[in-house]
Structure prediction request, 330 residues.
Amino acid sequence: MTMKNEIQNPYLLEVKNLKKYFPLKDNLLNGTQRLVRSVDDVSFYLQEGETLGLVGESGCGKSTTARAVLRLVEPTDGKVFYRGKDLSQFSQKELRNLRSQMQIIFQDPFASLNPRKKIGQILQEPFDIHGLKDKKEIPERVTGLLRKVGLSPDHISRYPHEFSGGQLQRIGIARAIALNPSFIVADEPVSSLDVSIRAQVINLLLDLKDSLDISYLFISHDMAVIKYFSDRVAVMYLGKIVELAESEQLYNSPRHPYTEALLAAIPTLESGSKKKPLLVKGDLPNAADPPKGCAFHTRCPIKEKRCEESIPELQEAAPGHFIACFLRSN
Prediction:
């Protein structure tokens, strides 16, 4: 029973004003240490059974955001709520217990697996760490995990170096789902795989989402993959979210010029189609020395004077469609 004064949180995950700054070693400017603002005041939510895509160029802060959410790195500021519970108040022991519900799939499957252990040992670790009481169940659960991800139970006695990249990522996925989590961060899970294997792994993740009722924070720099996989999409630029909307709405009616540029870069094989030219030039600015005003103004084709002087806030320009741009928010 819920008490009258207890506040119900409708979200599985809610991130409020998250920041993660890294100090530059041995680098002082006017007596003040410079900071790399990897994540700078990021807010979003994730509903039960939903996939939120987080997209942007390399170096924009996507992976750091995910790791700060899971407290694999400690946030500089901000709040992360999981089913209404403030994770900043959790002790290390409490966080460890929560790991069974919050997991991560890493970009490089080989680097994330212990090369000295057999696959059976790797998949047994989650059960050992979280204290599965009936040890007799573990072998059966391990072989069941391999079957769920499309691998043979015979692979249990092999080492990671004996597998292809796609097979290794399937093993990484099996480890992530071992304890039936409700939330998984998929950090560029297909970017290191051959194109022919990517679709198989993405479809596996989608099948697991439906069968195990998993919510994903799906990170990628590939707009085509994000479109296929995500229910909603958040576009990041230099540590900030600059646009957030339902996937179909964002792809059909992008508002931020950076989002437009990312979409224009998607290759197309349609006969007779004319691909739009890329609208921006140059590289992502240095996060240790970001531009004044809107961080995107140094590459923006439609900027005005105020874009160089003031920072636009992320505002709702249409129902469920948020944008941080002075010129496109209306």
